[in-house]
Amino acid sequence: MIFDIFLVEAIINGILFGGVLALLALGLNLVFGVVDVVWICYAELVMVGMYSIYWGNNHFGLPLVICVVIAIFAVALLGFLIHFLVIRPILGTPPINQLLVTGGLLFFMQSLATLLFTGDFRNLGLHLPVLELAEMYISFSRLIAFVTALLAMVALYMFLKRTYLGAAIRAISQDREVVVLMGVNPQRVYLVASALGGGLAGLGAALLILQYDVHPLIGISFGPITFMICVLGGLGNMIGGFIAAFVMSQLISLGGFFLETEWGYVIAFVFFIIMMFIRPQGLFGNRS
Amino acid sequence: MLELNNLTAGYGSFQALFSVNLEVKDGEAIAVIGPNGAGKTTLLRTISGMLPVQSGNLSMEGTSLKDVPPYRIIDLGIAHVPENRRLFPSMSIEDNLRMGAFTPNARPHYEERLDFIFNLFPRLKERRSQIAGTLSGGEQQMCAIGRALMSSPKLLLMDEPSAGLAPVIVNQVFQLVQQIRDQGLTVLIVEQNIEQVLQIVDRAYLMEVGSIKISGKAGELIQSESLRKAYVGL
Ligand SMILES: Nc1ncnc2c1ncn2[C@@H]1O[C@H](COP(=O)(O)OP(=O)(O)OP(=O)(O)O)[C@@H](O)[C@H]1O
Ligand SMILES: [Mg+2]
After folding, report:
1. CB contact under 8 A, B102 and A175
2. Is residue A248, in this structure, part of any structural domain at all?
3. Most exposed of B49, B74, B85, B223 (fewest Cβ within 10 Å)?
């Protein structure tokens, strides 16, 4: 009986963890779907967001909510600038260039963060309660993160479904030539999508800093898994990424439950590799 | 309305249009006919800004289109139904039509235009939330034409609207083009269904390897010996 309760707890934690991963995957997929460029440095944007929240709160003593809003806008601006300054000049050149420039940005941001903030682990020093529910312990910060991530995804969904700009974002990922005939300026949509992708990374940062210490290499913890989720769901496929996030988080959580936390990641990565052999286009991919 | 003077265009170093002169007057329906690879699609793509002009001139109601960015062409009243329809396949009919009204000028008239198009194509109304990729060829063509009409254009460019459709549907498409022009819209249509298209347009141009070979009144072209010779079986 006790065993079952722990299992249920692990499953619930897996679901909660999946929410934040789904949010990050959505941001990365959004940029990829629209601009057709993979931001290898996406998790480093999250790191920048975490540092801005930490700094605003700890150094300048700003209220946490204000710091979060600032972080979202700051990382959105960063996303905008990455597209404007780095991606735009290489659009239309061989795809390897995308890897090189966004990979370069990854190391640049990591090194800059080490220079500015040293390699120390830092946290907000928050002590959020742990909820006890039928003998299960659920961390309140995880619950907040999950609910916020879901709300953000619903908001994004509404935006994509209900607005002209949202329709243009969906349309451009299907036919980037023909949208021009309808009066869409692709360069502007690229900038909007990049800023949105940045904003989602900023929000992801706010949710992760509730649970994790920030340090210059924090991106390693979330970058590869986010990328794998996107590939597993079919790159650019937002619904696929959403589902894949929960599959991966559940594997990590259950692997951690039956073995050890590290094994959870090993199992998830092995699952990913096997799936790539079986379905290289991703679970829900239809692009070639 | 639309004027092309010695227009030259192509793909990189490949020249596909050689010094094309063409005029579309207000309220006219004009056809451009010609064999595969003649440059008909290239002509329409150059008019709507998808391809840059290499030399020569083109203007819409006196405004030169040469320096207008491609995404601004629609603001001048030109809408383009592209070759192979090119709908957004995973979006619904309604979302495809919404994209047709994307420009700030068109947005306030969205509801009104949607009614107009649903009136023209009751079938689209029945299926408004169906995903475009799952529509039949004829329905897709209706949706593509509807999408172009959403912006209340003055000039409609159509690239082989009857291609790949069953004969019955082809007749419907031509009836529809007739209906659209009866409402006062100016139409420039590219077609391979020469006999049928010549019955609904005022004038036509015959294009071969990137240049205009013959032009004239549709009624006269139907009788034309050289056209008959070029297209045996007509
Ligand atoms: N993207 C492209 N790049 C290079 N050449 C092209 C391209 N598109 C078309 N061409 C060439 O330009 C010429 C004109 O092609 P275009 O598509 O305009 O012909 P078309 O008259 O529309 O033919 P069809 O009736 O088959 O549609 C052809 O020789 C074609 O090979
Ligand atoms: Mg063609």
Report:
1. no
2. no
3. B223
ipTM above 0.85?
Answer: yes
Measured in whole angstroms, the distance separating CA B169 from the mean position of its chain's CA atoms is: 18
The answer as to CATH 3.30.365.10 being correct for domain B1-77+154-234 is no
Q: Is A181 in contact with B50 (Cβ distance < 8 A)?
A: yes
Residue B164: its pLDDT value, please? 86
Distance CA A27, CA A39 (A): 10
In a domain, A233, yes or no: no
CA-nearest residue for atom 30, ligand 1, is: B37
List Cα–Cα distances, B174 to A275, B4, B200, in angstroms: 50, 26, 7
Give chain A's domain count.
Answer: 1
Residue found under tokens 């800059």: A112
- B196-217 pLDDT tens trace: 899 999 999 999 999 998 888 8
Instruction: Give every strand in the sheet of B2-11, ordered side by side.
Output: B14-24, B2-11, B55-60, B63-64
| Nearest CA owner, ligand 1 atom 18 | B39
The answer, yes or no, to whether residue B145 has pLDDT greater than 60, is yes
**CA of B82, closest CA in chain A: separation in Å?**
8
User: Between the CA atoms of B36, B37, B40 and B45, what dihedral angle is there, to the nearest 10 degrees?
Assistant: 130
- What's the average model confidence in pLDDT over A27-49? 95
Predicted pLDDT at A6 = 83
Question: How distant is the Cα of B56 from the closest Cα of chain A, in angstroms?
Answer: 22
Annotated domain spans of chain B: 1-77+154-234, 84-153
pLDDT at A288 (0 to 100): 41
B90 neighbourhood in chain A, CB within 8 Å: 170, 174
- Residue A215 counted as domain residue: yes
- Mutation to test the A interface, candidates B50, B85, B98, most A Cβ within 10 Å: B98
* Residue A240 belongs to some domain of the structure: no
Residues of B in contact with A174 (CB under 8 A): 88-91
Could you say which of B82, B98, B106 has the minimum Cβ distance to residue A178?
A: B82
Q: Does the pLDDT value for residue B138 go beyond 80?
A: yes
pTM above 0.80, yes or no: yes
pLDDT value of residue A286 = 58
Q: Is the pLDDT of residue A285 over 80?
A: no
